[in-house]
């Protein structure tokens, strides 16, 4: 429910939160998961799985990346290495299609199906406000463009060998992980808040006020650091 591109943008704008019934439900579900996750011990393997995607962002992408990674082992000739570049390129196009939704272009022109860079650009513009995420946006943009350009270079390279091709595959895997992270950030409703008293980010939802339609108007966030309560008020548009 709180996944994919179906949740309205206004859910993420800074001062004008507006929850529908579904979102309220998801919000509470997310909270439950968040609380139980906080109690589990940190497992490094989970982190690796999350970087290398596990499944969530797209099983088909994961499968492709694994196949490409397996090709590295048997590649010997220039054509083999170039072919891996081609597969990396295809995987990136698949990533672009996976994260992009036509509504992200608004009234602007739709990118062509294989225009990976443009789809990523629109995705980033849609989910990450420039004013709130300048460094984050900047590094993602650079990584996205560099990965795409490098994969394309490899498809024509006469000199790329095992190491260059491994780097290219690693960049692709990382990039898929990066976009998964962005989606996680976007759909983590508490990530942008901190305690108004001690600035701690260890917050959990202690309660909320909703109107008669179930729309959340105010949230009470409990701080684990100082025990204080931070109020978040959502204004209707
Ligand atoms: Zn506090």
Keywords, please?
237 residues; mainly alpha; 2 domains; 7 helices; 9% strand; elongated; binds zinc ion
Task: Give a structural overview.
There is one protein chain. The chain is mainly α. The chain folds into two domains: 9-40 and 193-233, no CATH class; 61-186. The chain contains seven helices and three strands. The chain has helices at 21-39, 44-51, 59-74, 78-99, 116-127, 134-156, 162-186, and strands spanning 203-210, 216-223, 229-233. The protein has a three-stranded antiparallel sheet, covered by helices on one side. The protein is elongated and about 65 Å long. Residues 195, 197-198, 200, 223, 225-226, 228 line the site of zinc ion.
Percent in helix: 40-55%
For the termini, the CA-CA separation is: 23 Å
Total strands: the figure is: 3
Structural domains: how many: 2
Biggest beta sheet summary: 3 strands, antiparallel
Structural class computed from helices and strand pairing: mainly alpha
The 3D shape can be described as elongated
Total number of helices: 7
Order of helices and strands: HHHHHHHEEE
Strand order within the widest sheet? Answer: 1-2-3
The whole-angstrom Rg is 21 Å
Bound molecules: zinc ion
Q: Which parts are unreliable, with pLDDT below 50 for 5 consecutive residues or more?
A: 1-25
Strand content: 5-15%
Mean pLDDT: 79
Topology readout:
Layout: H1 21-39, H2 44-51, H3 59-74, H4 78-99, H5 116-127, H6 134-156, H7 162-186, E1 203-210, E2 216-223, E3 229-233
Antiparallel strand pairs: 1-2, 2-3
Helix pairs in contact: 3-4, 3-7, 4-5, 4-6, 4-7, 5-6, 6-7
The structure holds zinc ion.
Zinc ion binds at residues 195, 197-198, 200, 223, 225-226, 228.
